[in-house]
Amino acid sequence: MEIVVGIDIGGTKTKIGLVNKEGTCLVQTFFRTRDYLDLDAYQLQIKNTVDGLLQELGGTPIVLGCGIGAPNASSKNGTIENPANLAWKGSTPFVAKLKEKMPMPMRIMNDASAAALGELLFGRGKEMTDFIAITLGTGFGAGIVANGKLIDGFDGFAGELGHVDMNLGDGRLTGLGIPGGLEAYVSATGLKRTIVYMQAQYLDDSRFRNVAFNDLHGEDITKAAEEGDVLAIKAFDYTANIMAKALANFTAFTQPEAFILMGGLVNSGKWILEPLNTYLDQYLLEVYRGKVKILESGMEGKTAAICGAAALIWENHQTN
Amino acid sequence: MEIVVGIDIGGTKTKIGLVNKEGTCLVQTFFRTRDYLDLDAYQLQIKNTVDGLLQELGGTPIVLGCGIGAPNASSKNGTIENPANLAWKGSTPFVAKLKEKMPMPMRIMNDASAAALGELLFGRGKEMTDFIAITLGTGFGAGIVANGKLIDGFDGFAGELGHVDMNLGDGRLTGLGIPGGLEAYVSATGLKRTIVYMQAQYLDDSRFRNVAFNDLHGEDITKAAEEGDVLAIKAFDYTANIMAKALANFTAFTQPEAFILMGGLVNSGKWILEPLNTYLDQYLLEVYRGKVKILESGMEGKTAAICGAAALIWENHQTN
């Protein structure tokens, strides 16, 4: 059996799994990224984890290679550069170093681009040639597929839309210190920031007036909206409005058939999706109206990022 | 000898030429678009013009097909839809109708996308896989090339960036009545609008205080800047600033290696290009800084649009 190692490097967890040709993650595990601040120790932990998974899987699988999704990764250079949420600063030659420990075909890519590739090979993008995958977790990520191909960009940094000031909000700082960047508003973290913003902006009573910022959780905001909490509903509406403006702009760029959404914010379901659809219809140029779908990812949440990373290698073994 | 018919449909002129494999326009002519308001009469005039050019060229060339660049064209549907500057309203099945008169392989495309394809096959894009061609004439057009391929979008309307409100200006109306669209600022027409805006905004004396809006011409604005006219210089700076913000946003999308500029506004040379480069460097995310070139089109201005249109057919006859 042929398999691919998929690795998703996040600020909190590093998830690793073995993925077959159909995009099924056969075995998986994770460790805490911050337990290994030194690059060498971190990569040794990856190697040991992969060895353990191969043992757990059993048999004699042929390992075709290793795909890695990471924030601020350059696919063309095999590097991770100045990530906001990882310990290694500057430009880290991640692939070259890991290959010394695990000699096999290896590719790294921005995590949102990897997610888009996962959707293209294994998910809701299978039947589409033009779509944009949007990840809405701690940050805002975008992976763009056009003409049936992922767009890498000149040196592998396409789709870094979270930090660009699109003049859509009121100048909130992103993790990179950039005012007005999309991810300060449109992400799971952005929603929390909007909850406190709404407390400043309005006088409505809200359950969140008794909750500290650091104790805010997405699920609670969804539940509050369901119970009619005015500030929670206003926060979703505010987030959806800014997101719709952004997606309308993106549509004029590559005219995707669909946006495929994933990540924490999507778990809020109709509270974010209903206003998003309403506003998007309003902001789209007439020529695009009614032609752009908003879809939720069809990938299983827990392993989606691993399968996306593995898609970097499976892409080169497709036989169609 | 093999040749392709290239047709550029503009609001004022319809330019037609015969283009060889190297992208040289061998013979060419034009007629006034508005002299033929009826679609049938217009297309008959195209056919007669092409027949005349073939006769002028002489010999027995093999006509491989006909490529057409037009505003608001859908490449996938072969239609022109609700153009702001043409007489035919609604959705016009332009290709199907013209094929009845000129039965040959035929493709139509947004004029800016055709220009991008022209650059890819014959111009400065030859050595690049990722670039964006920007046309700055009456309007603002963008043709996006990524992975060495033009991006069409789901139904052929990618790159319609001129009418999108990106919140970059102060809400000027575009030709489609959309407030804040890019082409209200960043285009040859936009520059003229900015000249009168500057007269409202500032008290500086200027030669343009004696010129009516309808008598404003791009060349005069350039000449005035050269002579130190403060309002002219301010107008270029204002235009370049908004353009730089837009290009910085576009860069975060597909990370082009270069923007290739063409159209009337580019003739202003350093007056637009110098502030554009300065502002762009300022607005780009760090990860992109120093990696994005601003280039002027290498195509001969007079025939660039014809060659771009012809590229739609030549693209399918490349042998590399």
From TrEMBL, chains A, B:
InterPro entries according to UniProt: ATPase_NBD, ROK, ROK_cs
GO molecular function per UniProt: kinase activity
Zinc-finger as UniProt keyword: no
Residue spans crossing the bilayer: none
Gene3D superfamilies, per the entry: 3.30.420.40
Keywords, sorted A to Z: Kinase, Transferase
Listed Pfam families: ROK (PF00480)
This protein's record includes keyword Transferase: yes
PANTHER family in alphabetical order: BIFUNCTIONAL UDP-N-ACETYLGLUCOSAMINE 2-EPIMERASE_N-ACETYLMANNOSAMINE KINASE, ROK (REPRESSOR, ORF, KINASE) FAMILY
Similarity comment: Belongs to the ROK (NagC/XylR) family.
Protein name listed in UniProt: Glucokinase
